[in-house]
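Async update (no meeting this week)

Hi team, since we skipped the sync, here's where things stand on the single-chain job. The sequence we agreed to prioritize is pasted below, unchanged from the tracker. I ran it this morning and attached the output directly underneath so nobody has to dig for it. Comments welcome in thread, and please keep replies under the output.
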Amino acid sequence: MDIIPIKYDPKFVEEKIYHYWMKGGYFFSFPEEKKKSYTILMPPPNITGILHIGHLLNNTIQDVLIRYARMKGYNACWIPGTDHASIATEAKIVHQLKQRGISKTLIGRNKFLSYVYEWSDKHQNIIFQQLKKLGCSCDWNRIQFTMDEKLSKSVKKIFIDLYKMGYIYRGYRIVNWDTVAKTTISDEEVFYEEKKDKLFYIKYPIVGEKYSITIATTRPETVFGDSAICFHPNDFRFFHFKNKEAVIPIVNRIIPIIQDSYVDPSFGSGCLKITPAHNEDDKILSEKYNLKIINIFNDDATLNDKGLHYQGMDRFKVRKKVIKELSSLGYIEKVENIQHKIGFSERTKSVVEKKMSLQWFLKTKKMSFYAINAVKNGEINFYPNTFKKVYYQWMNKIRDWNISRQLWWGHRLPVYYYGNHINDFVVASNIEEALEQAKNKSKNENLTLDKIRQDSDVLDTWFSSWILPISVFDGFYKPNSKEISYYYPTENLVTGSDILFFWVARMIMAGYFFRKNKPFKNVYFTGILRDDENKKISKSLENSQNFVELIDKYGADSVRMGIMMFSSAGKDFHFDEKICLQGRNFLNKIWNAFRLIKSWKIEEKKAIPEASGKAILWFENRFYSVLETFENNIRKYKLDESLMIIYKLVWNDFCSIFLEIVKPPHGKKEISENVYLKTIKWFENLLKLLHPYIPFISEKIWTLLRKRKNGEALIISSWPKQKSYDKNILISFERVIQIISKIRFIRNKIHIPYKESLIFFSMKEEEKEFYPVILKLENISKIHFLSKEPKEKKQLFYFFLGTDRYFLFLDQKISSVEINISNIEKKIKYLHNLLSFIRKNLRNDQYLKSVPKSILLKEKKKENDTLKKISYFEDILLNKKKFIN
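Output:
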């Protein structure tokens, strides 16, 4: 027989319970025709380090859903995995090697990648251990890593297929350039912040004239890339500049002055300088007016040879020096302070540079149509649905996706070059195939492998992630396999709203494009977890508590419960460690209830006490009422509300009411067998409802509660089936609880000891069904029903519930209440005497002068405390006299 410890200690339970689940194979899933699948694909965390509080929330939600589905009889499959995170991981390794004096470029690609894989293996293991410690019931046989061979093959295949279909192309475009990572990044990887800046008014001399035209810019360092000056066609202020040319200061290059409605006449001077290589709108104008495109930046944001004597200097240093030079030459008209938004790289936090670059792109406009309609017609549901509006806005404005990155870590482009012309390339799955294609394309049969070189770029990390719901089941190479036919589409995606565009929208596009079907049915958007400064909790900011340390301190269940109680779908949430303490308190409550039940001794022939019978009747109806609400909340993904209703059911209804009614009288342990078995039944049902949220303690208590056939574990036990319930019973019992609360208030107010019996009078005879509960809980000796108010007022107190009045009498004519009055009066008299003595000293000048200040302060405090005690006992005396007179 197990010895039940007085206090629940998660350190001695959780690891053993997780091992018990793993040994039992309860997380494993394979296609079963008799069962419906319920699949969740874990958003793969980046291998850039350990998990943070945001991952704790996200994965707890997934585990709640998967455990609930498992108990509901579904074939639950939760697929874990990690993401290679090209930019972030490469930056980590580059920094790590730099500290060791090792250069990425000097050691070469293969050696560099060996360091990355070493890092990858280490951090994947750390991440999976964290998830296990949290209690995540993933199918660990299905671990996915976005650089695994199966997934890499799928990525390569769809690139080749999309290229052949005309969806992938190569071209010069203005891109977002991360000057630290030295790679392009997508629009979604750029965040904007309002910053103070300066607007410089620069004069450009007019060719052949003595006057100049003034432009306004925040970026004077880009004058070296200017191709034109532009003003609005309807801006009469500049009509005299039509068809004229200007000279770029410092550069002394002549550029045309053009007109276009793109210009905002109210901004700055009303004239703009056009720099097509470093501004997207300027690039459009350059195509319209056949302007030169001059790239002035190196990859690290230093100026190239177009920057003349500023070549090799950082862009921001150039800005300061250019302003000085322009000022000395008399070309600065004025400078204004402004506020405007500046783009930063999400990964490196560096200021993003717009740059003309030759990159690979994916056409997405056609793909977006099906994805938009799927959300509009309800094939895919968002929780909360407020995110639909944001989704539509982005999808309706979707642009071609820049999928190439200038990195070494990632899925290398299956593109091979064989010449120096821009079109001298082929797309192939390997170099041998590329050679054959290159021979055909170039019509050169003498080409050899040594003349073929693979593109050094890799694909955007999200290019492997957007196909995960298909590729994890090998759906590109085995499109009709049992695996993908059974598990696809998946059930739920749980993710942060911050990757709605990076990932969610693109997965929906991929699902309909490649399989003509949605990738998932529901998307649950977690809120963004924020720190005390309202900043998003993230690995890059390093502002998250280590949740393993929280688990070591409070236990996984406490942490899970704390975070689930205070987080709602889509709402941002400020994490506070105190919520874990609330979770731990609840666990202690459950454990104490379990210990109480196990302390009872069963009497087989003992009759069911009337109060216990009523409690069993009430709790059965109460349970099914709560179960209905719980399931409705789960269906609506209101997981915090479903947890709160269970919390109240356990703490208030089961522990504070039900167990208090059915437990043996004070000093006894014997309980009716029937009552005991019913108590066990309802406790087990509560454990089932609690299990998805707090799996460790619920499983532990389940194993200790009683012996089970075939040792059935709670994790795979069947979910309680909904049954009808009587609302009238719930209403009547609730009223009885309110009566008990009123009686307890009176006892406390007038200090009537619990041992004092009371006689209770009611004028509502229809409530009598549950009055045995009052008799049990409140030491009521008799209950009488009155047709009118009692005449006798001696020892009488009454209270109202609504318009109904109830009466209480003391059970004895001369009671301890009256005896206590005499004692209280004596106490008050003693306190008055004490007060008189204290005040006598405090009014004595000689005493005040002779005693130390510390003693004087003590005496004054004693005076104040005595006054409070007198007031307290006088209040009790007044209430007691009111009661018995």
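Quick observations from my side:
The chain has five domains: 10-159+463-560, 195-348, 561-725, 730-810, 816-884.
The chain has 27 helices and 31 strands.
Reply here if anything looks off.
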